[in-house]
């Protein structure tokens, strides 16, 4: 058990989970203003090996272990997350206007299950504030994504306007965008995964991306869709059909779950989306299912219950190009990304593979 689990986690566990998360973010925002501190963290925590590096759509990833949406909703700490060795960082979910989210308490830790339940409802400071923070935040080898959503007050029929507004405000500042239609905590949001609704949304977003890229004279940036773990195979088929038909270039699978069959006694009564260990098998199955339906160059990000190298390896073998983590970071601390990457190199060696791109689809 590392220092984080022995010392920091028990202290943080005494606080309300959201308060401790806020404190941690404030601390890391302070640390990342000090180049020496950042360099020391990078030296202690990050692990580099060229066998983990890969390219996709002109983006260079130094490793396949990323930070999931929600960890850094307001773009406070991408340089810190880079320093702890993340292969890529997804900030957000951001909405066009700042909003407070649902009433507290709205984040719950279930340490016995290595799980969390949250019903945050996208509290965030809005696109304008995020744009200010993201200026100069991108780092070589660590692509930066922005996860975009809609304000709670925007009617579902006008949702596309909110997502487009997010692109308009942030287009030059990110390397890729993730369309969040799968959070269970904004009323009606998951219905945007339905075939017609998603087709309309994807069409608006892809065409706006083309316009923005043309205006800036730069290549079009990839758009990914983030899906729920609670979709049936037929619903998943619809999502894939729309993505392939409309020019969406990847899927992030999965968001938090409201499926009661994944709950323990402790989490059964908590309203909100479940994350962490109980989600892992569903995430692996979803990635495996999706990989059979999409072409090789379609980017799949596996997320759900990644705590160690074995969990990350399972998602990569099922067909993910990369993985992300949120709950595992909370329970294992910032050193976990480096240790997962170290473990992935060991697995590559054991499997006789020369690079991480060869791991995909070997389940
Ligand atoms: C407290 C909390 C907040 C989250 N906020 C977001 C969010 O704003 N947008 C999003 O797409 N996913 C969000 N997620 C979902 C995670 O990005 C991830 O998809 C999910 O938690 C499964 O990964 P994990 O098991 O590693 O946590 C959040 C998860 C947690 C636990």
Strand order of the largest sheet: 3-4-7-8-9-10-12-13
Low-confidence segments, given as residue ranges, are none
Overall form: globular
Q: Considering DSSP H and I runs of 4 or more, what fraction of the residues is helical?
A: 40-55%
The H/E string reads HHHEEEHEEEHEHEHEHEHEHEHEHH
Number of strands: 13
Backbone CA Rg: 19 Å
Give the cofactors and ligands. flavin mononucleotide
Instruction: Please identify which CATH superfamily we are dealing with.
Output: Aldolase class I
Number of helices: 13
Count of all domains: 1
Write down the oligomeric state. Answer: single chain
Q: How much is the average pLDDT? A: 93
CATH class: Alpha Beta
Return the CATH architecture.
Alpha-Beta Barrel
Structural class: alpha/beta
Estimated share of beta-strand residues: 15-25%
Sheet of most strands: 8 strands, parallel, barrel
Short characterization:
The protein is 41% helix and 15% strand. The chain has 363 residues and is an alpha/beta fold.
Ordered list of secondary-structure elements with their pairings:
Elements: H1 3-13, H2 17-31, H3 35-45, E1 54-56, E2 59-61, E3 65-67, H4 78-83, E4 88-94, E5 107-110, E6 115-118, H5 126-134, E7 144-148, H6 159-170, E8 176-180, H7 195-216, E9 223-227, H8 233-246, E10 250-253, H9 265-268, E11 273-276, H10 280-293, E12 299-303, H11 309-318, E13 322-325, H12 327-332, H13 336-351
Parallel strand pairs: 3-4, 3-13, 4-7, 7-8, 8-9, 9-10, 10-12, 12-13
Antiparallel strand pairs: 1-2, 5-6, 6-11
Helix pairs in contact: 6-7, 7-8, 10-11, 11-13
The structure holds flavin mononucleotide.
